[in-house]
Design brief:
Helix content: 40-55%
Number of strands: 11
CATH class of the largest domain: Alpha Beta
Order of helices and strands: HHHHHEEHHEHEHEHEEHEEHEEHH
Structural class: alpha/beta
Number of helices: 14
Distance between the termini: 41 Å
Strand order of the largest sheet: 5-4-3-6-8-10
Shape: globular
CATH architecture of the largest domain: 3-Layer(aba) Sandwich
Number of domains: 2
CATH topology of the largest domain: Rossmann fold
Length: 324
């Protein structure tokens, strides 16, 4: 076997291990408290690559240089992917405009994650990030997700694609013209029949759920979806479907009010996300949008700028993503 074939074989082995790791981490197969969890759930790619190459006789430094010359991309964590999506999908206006249905948030900038969901790569990044956050903050991993129908349904479908065992329930808001005035679960809560069927097939198992969306300002739409869904569950009286008390989003567009206190006071709910954004941080994100035609979180140079954004968010004390 010639030298290039050996290198190619090594690369295929590494990529294969990476795929297995992603499957395990996505479905939460391995207990996160076990001694091997670090290898599955944390950024271990560089360390694993060095170990594999060293184990077959390559000196570590030489192996690192050869990988670098081959152009194999570094690992890109979910936080960096979310930042990349923000950079590539930020809009700027001449003056401040309000967005947010229940809690308008005036801003010169708009993070267009709804548009981003029409891009396969961005949609994949966002779904991966939500799944990772659900895996970290929701124990056990949810059996179902709920989302407002006026929310990011493209992203919700991607969640189903990446985690097929998740049942999705879309909740029609009070102003949805297709919503029945009478409480009729299968019409006003699209997908509820699949969840009920799953519950009936697993009567000895409690099904846990979480509310999801791409982002929020004041979070009223998600909060109202939780309240409506939980009230509906009380009416249909299926004991092994647990009510929803957690929401998972990618980020908040603003920091103007205390969403955590509001959620806690409403129903002892919790809302998890990667970060909150200020107007100043959005300005820095927009600068990167102007600097790069398309920011690539796997590009070393681009990653340095992503890290600067992360450090800015952290210094602002609005970074909530913590490696475990």
């Amino acid at each position: 076997m010639i030298y290039s074939d050996i290198i190619s074989t090594i690369i295929l082995i590494i990529l294969g291990i990476g795929t297995i790791r992603w499957i395990i981490s996505k479905y939460g197969i391995l207990d996160r408290e076990s001694k091997w969890a670090r290898l599955i759930y944390n950024e271990y790619d560089s360390d694993l690559t060095r170990r594999i190459l060293a184990s077959i006789g390559f000196p570590i430094d030489e192996a690192r240089n050869k990988i670098s010359k081959l152009g194999i991309p570094e690992n890109c964590d979910s936080l960096s992917k979310v930042i990349a999506v923000c950079v590539n999908n930020i809009l700027v206006f001449s003056g401040k405009k309000s967005h947010g249905n229940k809690s308008p948030a005036p801003s010169r900038y708009y993070l267009n994650t709804m548009e981003a969901s029409h891009n396969e790569l961005d949609r994949t990044y966002m779904a991966q990030a939500l799944i990772e956050l659900m895996g970290k903050e929701c124990r056990p991993f949810p059996n179902y997700v709920i989302t407002p129908k006026q929310g990011n349904t493209y992203l919700t479908h991607e969640l189903n694609k990446q985690s097929p065992n998740l049942v999705t329930v879309l909740i029609k808001g009070a102003d949805d013209s297709s919503r029945l005035k009478e409480e009729f679960a299968s019409v006003n809560y699209e997908g509820i029949n699949y969840l009920i069927s799953l519950a009936n097939k697993n009567k000895d198992k409690t099904l846990y759920g979480v509310a999801v969306d791409c982002n929020a300002s004041g979070g009223a739409n998600i909060k109202n979806a939780i309240l409506e869904f939980n009230a509906m569950l009380e009416n249909i009286k299926i004991k092994n479907i647990a009510i929803v008390n957690k929401a998972v989003i990618l980020f908040r567009c603003n920091c103007d009010d205390d969403i955590d206190e509001d959620y806690k006071n409403t129903g002892n709910f919790e809302v998890y996300r990667y970060f909150d954004l200020t107007e100043e941080i959005k300005e820095e994100i927009h600068k990167l949008n102007l600097k790069y035609r398309h920011l690539d979180c796997y590009n070393k140079t681009h990653r340095k700028d992503i890290q600067k954004i992360i450090e800015t968010i952290n210094n602002n004390k609005t970074l909530f993503y913590k490696e475990k």
